[in-house]
Specification:
Length: 70
């Protein structure tokens, strides 16, 4: 399911991966038009599964399209 959500509601649970993000790849996703992340939903928050670089590139936005797996 595709949904537009606030970036504040997406939890980056793998902080070890966040520390290793490559800024070269983040820059490539600045104008990404497709959903930026794949997440699971846990009541109030969305847990990030895939899309760490894309989500970081979209950080300037307040909302983004994501794919939710149930």
């Amino acid at each position: 399911m595709k949904k537009n959500v606030s970036l504040d509601s997406i939890i980056k649970s793998n902080m070890n991966h966040v520390r290793k993000l490559n800024s070269k790849y983040i820059d490539q996703y600045k104008d990404y038009k497709l959903p930026v992340a794949v997440c699971t939903y846990s009541g109030n928050d969305f847990n990030l599964i895939d899309g760490y670089h894309r989500l970081t590139a979209a950080n300037k936005n307040t909302c983004a399209d994501i794919i939710i797996l149930y």
